[in-house]
Amino acid sequence: MKDLTKAEEQVMRYLWKLEKAFLKDIVDQFQEPRPAYTTISTVIRTLVTKKFISFTTYGRIKEYYPLVSKEIYFKSHFKGVIKNFFSGSISKFAMFFTNNEDLNVKELEEMKQFIEEKIEQLKKEND
Predict the structure, then answer these.
(1) Cβ proximity of 11 and 26 under 8 Å
(2) 3-state DSSP call for residue 34?
(3) d(C-alpha 82, C-alpha 86), whole Å
(4) Contact (CB, 8 A) for 21 and 32
(5) Edge to edge, what strands does the sheet with 53-58 contain?
(6) What is the value of pTM for the model shown?
């Protein structure tokens, strides 16, 4: 999956939030000072070309919707970060994250519980 520029990712975040939107609806999501209408239109055309979004036409107006879910994009993007910065090792990422973030005991306990539940699930699947 292709990476998105910051502008493309911003538009996608708004479209994921809105689910379906006309160009005006997307432009309205931006804080003042908003980018030019034509700038957002260009970004949207690029996202259509990259097959991240599509549209339904109503006369001369287009309603846009995502073709790629937020979860699928994040998963693909996250895999790239793991590959490029942690030699493909999720455990190296986890060690980096837990050593370099200000996690409190509650957050660490929640992570631990999630991992233990996932281990149990995988054990049951392999039996």
Answers:
(1) yes
(2) coil
(3) 5
(4) no
(5) 21-22, 61-66, 53-58
(6) 0.74
Amino acid at 108: L
Q: Which pair of structure tokens corresponds to residue 122? A: 């995988």
pLDDT digits (tens, 9 = 90+) for 23-53: 999 999 999 999 999 999 999 999 999 999 9
Half-sphere CA count of 85, side-chain side, radius 13 A: 12
Residue type, 23: L
Looking only at the bridges linking them, the beta strands covering 21-22 and 53-58 are unpaired
Which residues in the chain belong to E strands, given as ranges?
21-22, 53-58, 61-66
Using the structure block, give the residue that is written with the tokens 């937020």: 70
67: its two tokens: 């073709």
Q: Are 40 and 27 in contact (CB under 8 A)?
A: yes
At 46 the three-state DSSP class reads: helix
CA dist., res. 40 & res. 5, Å (int):
13
**pLDDT, tens digit, 9 for 90 and up, residues 73-91:** 998 888 888 888 888 888 8
Q: Hey, how many other C-beta atoms are within 10 angstroms of the C-beta on 113?
A: 10
Q: Which tokens sit at 19?
A: 């689910």
